[in-house]
Write a structure and sequence with these properties.
The structure holds two protein chains of two kinds.
Chain A: H1 3-23, H2 32-60, H3 66-71, H4 82-85, H5 91-113, H6 118-146, H7 150-163, H8 185-198, H9 220-235
Helix pairs in contact in A: 1-2, 2-6, 5-6, 5-7, 5-8
Chain B: H1 2-9, H2 21-24, E1 27-32, E2 39-43, H3 53-66, E3 72-76, H4 89-97, E4 100-101, E5 128-132, E6 140-145, E7 151-155
Parallel strand pairs in B: 2-3, 4-7
Antiparallel strand pairs in B: 1-2, 5-6, 6-7
Helix pairs in contact in B: 1-3
The chains are: A mainly alpha, B alpha/beta.
């Protein structure tokens, strides 16, 4: 990444793709309350995405607004981390993704709230309050499933093992960014460690760290997600209702 | 000036229709340019993704037009971020009267939050429990009273 545009675009893409994935749970969650919860968290992510992408468009100065950035780019032009584009899997995988993402976004937005860029600082100050709630929610489920029945424990551990390798990409150093993601690693570890321990889950030792999202090299899953997300806008350019 | 402020302040929240945007604390400023007569209203969202914002902007412009200010602009700011501490006392009373338990004060940074009981807005009992951390809108959670068995919304402290 290089400078505020790339950084803002990347964070906006993280939030947008996370929102789209979470929205897939709508009408499919294991219980009504959780259906509402996931839709609400998706809505928070979408709100942050709109602010970040609008600002990215202004920084770029090429006349692209939030819609142009969301709907008219192809997969290779997206800068989100791989973690958010991974399929939802079972409920445990979704909770592992939600928990790890929130444990990264909370210190990220908190640091952003104190950065020199006024617009990013305002977005950070706003979004961190919402992230704190997402983190609570994710941690609650990780503990409930991990320290639950034999079957829920097995599935939660499998989910953590599956998703964990994708957390390393979140902290790829970027000295040119308003907040260097590498500086967020310790806060993430301090949050995640005790929750996994309380959940009787083992933190994976895996050193495998798939990456590439920040440079536009994605998993195949992103293309399918974008096809569904963008089809209406592309089929009916400028449509309003 | 004052009538423009009064008109904007009278707009009700489209999702919680018992409370005005002024009482909710999302109306930040109303300014009128004495030369052009143009009114600029500044609002801030409760949550970043609040889907009611478009309706609120339209309602403000409509209220101002009715009050004789057809030339109005609605600006949205995000800083400082909205807090439930900005809900006025009259707003809290109206929420409670409508069966929505108002939020507790937001704990200061660094203070370990002590979870206080949420009182049932129907019978006043503190014997309540959370049913769902999220509710019918982004700003609410779903609770239930163990005394009178009624479910109720609770506006989450933010």
């Amino acid at each position: 990444m290089n400078g505020p545009f790339d950084f803002t675009l990347a964070l906006g893409d993280d939030a947008l793709i996370a929102a789209q994935r979470l929205a897939e749970w709508t009408t499919r969650a294991p219980e009504m309350e959780e259906d509402i919860a996931l839709a609400n968290i998706a809505l928070d992510q979408l709100g942050a995405a709109r602010l970040l992408l609008s600002y990215a468009g202004e920084l770029e100065g090429a006349g692209r607004d939030e819609d142009a950035l969301a709907y008219l780019r192809d997969d290779r032009q997206f800068r989100n981390v791989l973690l958010v584009e991974l399929p939802n899997g079972d409920f445990a995988v979704t909770m592992a993704k939600l928990f790890f993402l929130a444990a990264y976004q909370l210190p990220l937005y908190t640091a952003l709230a104190g950065c020199a860029d006024e617009r990013l600082a305002a977005i950070g100050a706003k979004a961190r309050k919402e992230s704190a709630y997402h983190l609570d929610h994710g941690a609650l489920w990780v503990k409930r499933l991990g320290d639950g029945t034999e079957e829920s424990h097995r599935r939660m551990q499998a989910a953590v093992d599956q998703v964990w390798p994708y957390t390393h990409e979140l902290f790829t150093a970027d000295l040119a960014a308003p907040v260097d993601p590498a500086t967020l690693r310790s806060a993430f570890d301090e949050t995640v460690g005790p929750v996994l321990a309380e959940a009787t889950l083992t933190r994976p030792e895996s050193r495998w760290s798939p990456a590439g999202g920040r440079t536009g090299v994605h998993t195949e899953h992103l293309s399918y997600l974008l096809a569904e997300m963008q089809v209406l806008h592309r089929a009916h350019p400028g449509a309003k209702w | 000036m004052s009538d423009a402020r009064t008109a904007a302040a009278s707009v009700v929240d489209p999702e919680i229709r018992v409370i005005t945007i002024d009482e909710l604390g999302i109306l930040r400023a109303v300014e009128k340019d004495p030369a052009s007569g143009r009114v600029t209203v500044t609002i801030t969202p409760t949550y970043t993704g609040c889907p009611a914002m478009d309706v609120i902007r339209a309602d403000i412009r409509r209220a101002l037009a009715v009050a004789g200010h057809p030339d109005a602009e609605v600006r949205t700011v995000y800083s400082p971020p909205w807090s439930t501490d900005w809900i006025s006392d009259s707003g809290r009373a109206k929420l409670a009267a409508a069966g929505i338990a108002p939020p507790a004060p937001v704990p200061a940074a660094g203070v370990v939050p002590l979870t206080l009981a949420v009182r049932c807005p129907h019978c006043g009992s503190p014997e309540t429990e959370q049913v769902s951390r999220f509710g019918s809108t982004a700003c609410k959670a779903l609770w239930r009273c163990r005394s009178c068995s009624e479910p109720f919304d609770h506006l989450k402290a933010l």
